[in-house]
Amino acid sequence: MNQEHAQQLKAAIEAVKSREIGNIYFVACGGSMATLTPAQYILDREIDIPSAVYSSNEFILRSPKALNDKSVVISCSHSGNTPETVEATEFARSKGALTISLSHLVDSPLWNAAEYRLHYDWGTEARAEENNYGILYRLIFGILNTLYPNEKYARAVASVETSLHDVFERNKANTLEAAKAFGSDYKREPIIYTMASGINYSLAYSFAICLLQEMQWIHSSAIHAGEYFHGPFEVTDYDVPFIIIKGIGETRLMDDRAHDFCQKFSDKIVLIDAETFDMEGISAEVRNYFANLVAGVVLRQYAQYLSEFRGHPLSVRRYMWKMDY
Amino acid sequence: MNQEHAQQLKAAIEAVKSREIGNIYFVACGGSMATLTPAQYILDREIDIPSAVYSSNEFILRSPKALNDKSVVISCSHSGNTPETVEATEFARSKGALTISLSHLVDSPLWNAAEYRLHYDWGTEARAEENNYGILYRLIFGILNTLYPNEKYARAVASVETSLHDVFERNKANTLEAAKAFGSDYKREPIIYTMASGINYSLAYSFAICLLQEMQWIHSSAIHAGEYFHGPFEVTDYDVPFIIIKGIGETRLMDDRAHDFCQKFSDKIVLIDAETFDMEGISAEVRNYFANLVAGVVLRQYAQYLSEFRGHPLSVRRYMWKMDY
Predict the structure, then answer these.
(1) What top-tier enzyme class does this entry carry (chains A, B) (predicted)?
(2) How far apart are CA B286 and CA B42, in angstroms?
């Protein structure tokens, strides 16, 4: 365990404990917003303090009236340089909110904007318990266990610290061949929809906007599995591809229903089913909160092989970082 | 004015006033969810009681812990028959929440599930102040004016009651030629993105999932104008169409930024700019909360002409109402 990370987490969790909390906001952009969103889902299920997710500029310009000195604002930017997220964190702090920021870069503008700073590791060598999701989950379950002490939360933290990394590695290995087949089979698709619900929805969103649109220039849209039947399902046809992520928790009913319908009319369904994951080591009572993380690692490998079969590296951009915008 | 509607609104507003309110949920599916969403935006800006929007099944299965007898749950189903929304309303009521439902059909299952029922008119003859948005806005500004009496809110209600219908008609007439040109120019597009932010975002969402995907079988995705720069903008190219809705309020900065960038690289931008609307009769201080409604009427006419030039009526479905799902 990285002792610096542990100390940063301890300080942030104690700060939350020391305050009266009226509401909690998660604020970030794009992939970082999607990273934070599962934590909002967990809080929604576990505690009666309202919480919400905002894209950074929407948060600043909308300026929710409930943002005040009883708010906790958790923000995230990988580089720590995303101007909207830095500004949103400064804005929240100016309103008296307790600010906690996650970033890979120490001493970045975001790092200096937030009252409590959480560094996370990144890259192929980084261990899961020290990367963005690992730090976020240790923070959220740490806050829960401090505010409402419960063995369940302690076991969730322990699951991250002792088992998550190996779970990721085993499931990556188990889905390697499926990832290669996906890359080969779907390399010529001009549009690929993603679909999920509950805690997995933000993964469908980030796969659509970051992996497909941003990194592969493939048209996409994340469809909520419950919303599918209220409009989007009419585009379903034999040649329209859908990546469907099925969770293992309380919202799986929606995923099952969407999958059952979709497979009747589309011949191009890519199913990521959390029930097939090897979750050994993750405490059984919180596995529904972890399957989305495993699905994310599995899908990242799918994207990697899609990019290889398309000869379009995931690192290529035409606008991002290339010009002012 | 329809006296029955006025009485139903009065009863619902008084019920809200009589309770201690901890939070407010808006719950519906698809187009009805998008209809309710602007009200959440208005509450976010105007009061410090947290509020949130959920798709009905997500609401039931997620079962937010903050849903209790201090909650107000506002739901909507046009037919009053949407099973998920009926169940969500019953679920909310079972948790002790105050339930208010909007529906076009009296004595529908939703009508019977909710404690307070608001009927709205529908069809080509319906007046704006009595249709879905008219009733919703009279409810929301009525609640605001009862909880926090303010001339601004009274003028907002008066704007709906006296002027909204004519504003809709005038702006429809003003954009008729533009709607026809859109239908002709975009009739062969296989994918059309929509983009907006703030109070207009839910209109981008409903236009994407209801008008384009459901009613025209055209691929689409609603992009949040702030999120555009964090992934989606990489799909922008000279031949990729975007319908961009620009509001007149506090979030217009995001719309301007997205439009400025998008028009550099796409030759197919359809701009719906609320600054060009004739808003005479709507109280100046709340026009930012009404421009989305006008944009919706304008865009509905765009969809009408798109359907005519494509020979694909807006009423055609292949799955909806045709089978069990």
Answers:
(1) hydrolase
(2) 10
Tell me, rounded to whole angstroms, the distance of Cα B24 from its chain centroid.
17
CA distance B63 to chain A (A): 7
Q: Please, what's the b/e burial string for B71-109 (b: 16 or more CB within 10 A of its CB; e: otherwise)?
A: bbbbbbbbebebebbbbbbbbbeeeebbbbbbbbbeebb
Q: Domain A3-162 adopts which CATH fold?
A: Rossmann fold (3.40.50)
Q: Which class is A176-310 in CATH?
A: alpha beta
Question: Encoding tokens for residue B23?
Answer: 């939070």
Q: Which two three-digit tokens encode residue A226?
A: 């419950």
Please judge whether A319 and B265 are an interchain contact, meaning their C-beta atoms are less than 8 angstroms apart: yes
Q: In chain A, what residues touch B64 (CB-CB under 8 Å)?
A: 44-45
What share of chain B has pLDDT > 90, as a percent?
99
B1: confidence class by pLDDT, cuts 50, 70, 90: confident
Q: Which two three-digit tokens encode residue A74? A: 């958790």
Q: Find the CB nearest B58 among A62, A197, A232.
A: A197
Q: In sequence order, what DSSP letters do the residues of A112-161 get, joined into one string? A: HH-SEEEE---STT--GGGSHHHHHHHHHHHHHHHHS--HHHHHHHHHHH
Complex ipTM, two decimals? 0.98
**Which residues 6+ apart lie within 8 Å of A264 measured at CB?**
none
B29 contacts in chain A (CB < 8 Å): 226-227, 229-230
DSSP state of A78: S
Quick one: which H or E segment has residue B308? helix B291-310
Answer yes or no: same fold for A3-162 and A176-310: yes
Sketch the domain layout of chain A as residue ranges: 3-162, 176-310
Cross-chain residue pair B209–A230, CB shorter than 8 Å: yes
Q: Tokens 């779970």 map to which residue?
A: A167
Q: Give dist(CA A149, CA A52) in Å, integer.
A: 23
Report how far Cα B30 is from the mean position of its chain's Cα atoms: 10
Report, as an integer, the average pLDDT of A199-213.
98
Six-digit token pair at B135? 């009733």
Q: Which residues is B55 bridged to in the sheet?
A: B28
Looking up tokens 């933290």 gives: A157
CATH code at B178-310? 3.40.50.10490
